Amino acid sequence: MAKANEKPEGAQTSTLNVSRTFTAASDLVFRAWSSAEHLKRWFCPEVYTVPEAEVEFRVGGAFDICMQSPQGQRHWSRGRFVEIVPNKRLVIDMEVPDDDDKTLFRALLEADFSMDHGVTRLEVRQTFTILDPRAAPMIQGAPMGWQQTLDRLEREVARIQQLPPASRSVVHAMFCIERTYPAAPAQVFKAFTDPAAKAKWFGSGEGLTLLAREMDVRPGGREHLQGRWNTGMVSTFDAVYFDVVPDQRLVYAYEMHLDQRKISVSLATVELKPAGTGTRLVMTEQGAFLDGYDDAGSREQGTNFLLDAMGRSLQD
Q: pTM for the full model?
């Protein structure tokens, strides 16, 4: 197979960019590209079906898809995986032949996955190399076709979310973050433990609608926060405090849900120490990520974001 990014003399090229956000973790969206079983459910525009597919999910493996029209016409895309970065990036080199196996056009498909606050953004870039004038209508219809295809992908991801996990699993991760704030330890402690002070920086992000907030910071006390993102996904934080030393230390455990799915259970320790006229904060978190959920470092990234927001709140 020739490479899609190789342009024969006289051939025309064009590029299409489409994107979509999903209220799901990146590993679930990525999984929908990984097997014929999944791709048969979504890799075609509306009214079309995928009666046949051969997918070998490895670099160099086959990516052959047959799309069938309502009238029974079959259109094959034959390709191979060029690059696979789990939960982050796919590159697929494809060509589309006619009924006589003459290539009409080639297409290099690049799919990039990124996750923030439990929402996955998919960016698709497809570069077409037109080898036969008969391919022009197909290329012209690609933008609408991809939008309909991503609609189907959205439904497939939702279906995957409802499936019981194929196997139970736990992935452990740990991080430690340090900050120094120009505020006394008592003020920083208050930002973590006073409901009004904490509401300024925790659970008040852009695109989040607060659904519930409860807070009782004492040994055995609980904290509950639930919000709906503008994508429709509901995230839930439930914590239990085990150790509370005023102006010095907090130790608590918490679990996180995305919609009805429990994604993690974590143990967090916040230590506060005087640093001149300010406070040195050390936050250590040990997490157990459950049943295939892969946060790809987003928990640490999100915690950094929150601690920055907390620092700004100290200036109010």
A: 0.60
